[in-house]
Fold:
Amino acid sequence: MSNEQHGYLKFGGMNVKITGFLIMNGNGDQIPADAHGNNVAFTCSKCSHPVLASALENQRGSDFDHPVDCKGCGRGYWLDVRPSAEKLYIHVWRPNA
Ligand SMILES: [Zn+2]
Structure:
């Protein structure tokens, strides 16, 4: 079944539904997270505060240029969505910051 039949791809493929995607950190290790619609909730790897990021274009966390900041400690995260593989990588924005 193609991604189009799933309804994942909209608006030229930038806005991606990530429900059910495999969620991993930047090292490729699967992490506890809750992906629904265009959003994913996870816990900060530094302070365990909950973080909510969006895969929607230009929304917080959607890419490197639009990181989401942890409200607990300020660590930034951004999403690397791979629709064809149904995978989502959550990268630390500036690991050494
Ligand atoms: Zn934090």
About this structure: The chain is about 5% helix and 40% strand.
